[in-house]
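User: Show me an example of a complex going from sequences to structure tokens.

Assistant: Sure. Here are the input components:
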Amino acid sequence: MPSATDNIYLPKPAVLDRVVDEIHEVKTFYWHFEDAEEQRKFRNFRPGQFAQVSLFGTGEFPASLPPSPTEAETFFTIRTVGSCTAALHALKPGEKFAVRGPYGNGFPMEDYFGKNLVFVAGGIGLIPLRSCIIYALAHRQNFKSIQIFLGARTPRDLMYRDNLRDWEQSAGVECHLTVDRAAEGWTGNVGVVGSLFKKPGVQVPIDNTVAFVCGPPIMFRFVIKDLLAMGFPERSIVSTLERYMKCGVGKCGHCCIGVAYVCVDGPVFTYEQIKKLGEDI
Amino acid sequence: MRARLLNRADVLKIVDLLRAQGHEVLAPFCGRGRDTFFDTVTDANRDEIQIHLPNPYYPPKRYVLPHIERLLKVQRANGDWKIEPTFDEPKRAIFGLRSCDVAGIWHLDRFYLGRDFRDTYYDRRRKNLFLVNVVCTDPERDISDECFCLCADTGPAARDHFDLQLMDLRDGEFMAVAGTSAGEAMFAEPIFKKATAAHVEKRRAILDEVRKRFKNTTSWFPATVRYVSQGKILDKTWEEIGNRCLECGGCTYVCPACTCFTVSDRQVGPNEIERVRIWDACALQGFTRMAGGHNPRKAVHDRRNRRFFRKLAHYFIQRELSVACMGCGRCAAVCHGDVGMPSVVEMIRRATAETEKTNDQ
């Protein structure tokens, strides 16, 4: 939490270290704060929190934090959609930008100790969930079963390939992939992400389980429907919502959904809370 | 007792004192016609300051939250960014602030300085601000048909959150009440005299009389807050309100309690940019538009409702300790579609009460 004298709108200079291509229009940007003390403070973030990224002259945008606090490096995974993200994509290693944060509530991972975890992600919805998955695997003994269900449009749209390979091969986690449209060489499942729940041999635990759902609105709606039909209580389904934010600290008003400021009350909400916000998500 | 008496002729000496203390004093003036405005007091215009006048449409909110405020100056040199926060913290006093606007600033104080994050820019500006409230007592000039501070419980006499409050007791006398130690310190000046119990009684009697001069007293806030908070408002009522909104943003512009802003970077030199924040309005179409063009709040009634929902939902009232409406009536005065706060509250109350009645039968 910032002290009373902190300037909540002041971003701190950061250096871009390297850029890795993920999928079409999506890249991962490894970076660090110029000031080592800032870097140390920042690394206490929780999975599910976000940061405000400044590209001076273009503007500032909110970005999920895909790394887990258990990892050494800080990075963003960003799709080019608007002017700020395009400006970040145009940045070269060694060039400077600025970051402030972390903000938001994040996933209360400690509250989930002793539970089964089910991760359901569609497309770039994996970005915020990656943090939770890596965190959960780093604290593997604190959780019961861990299942990952991932959907992408085509095999070429699967991101974090190295992680996927690890998760598919790891004994401590069950990882299922599906694509909407197969391509040559794809031997995996074809269909929406919900179709994975009914695959032979897949047993999704309901009791004492938290389901993390993140993806495009249409995928979100159908997965929620599936999970509720399977008997998941609304409060056991968690997600992270997105809105454009100008401040990230509950002042500018842009991210309000119904009664909630996504930036300070969220971005993590249970489905039970999402239903009560009083506005479309 | 923190009340004193002063002569009508000495009232503007308060402005002189504040100026002598180094304050930039903002006071209300009359233009030609209905227009009234706050402006900086100078030797030239000092005698034209108005005590009784229609409250300016353009609220004094801008003295704590300017429309366009620079947050950062950023300079580029050898690939590095030099980021420098810039603060504007003038020593200011607002003289002649109406009670609704006192409540407005108090609302902004709780919003910008409350909860987990404290707005440094607001804080610095607010710390240097001295507020002289003038109670609305002249039914012809001070109180308009749109005023409904009685319903919002903010006036005609503010109970707190001013430094000094002045009230015209008529017969050439004013009563001064101190709200803070800074206000009380002014009483050391010889223009202030002791007030008696009779003066306090006179103040009470005038306020009783003034309260009866408000035309707009049936705003039904509590019932509306209940309906909004319980989600009882019919879609067709929201749509009806939305259909009358022309999306000019005028209501948010004149509102003393609206807080939303947007942030923008602008180039000011070859290697220099500044980051500014600018007033924004949730009633405008681009407000919730995300990168890539997706806009979760599409319909005009969604946006229109947003403003009223934000101001009237119980959840936000709990969070900010008051309805985010001060009853100043400015939105009612500027709205082309007659969907200012009083009309909306009345539309909601009527439609919802009828539905409830039908449901009960």
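The lines above are the inputs; the final block is the predicted structure for all two components together. Chain B has a mean pLDDT of 89.
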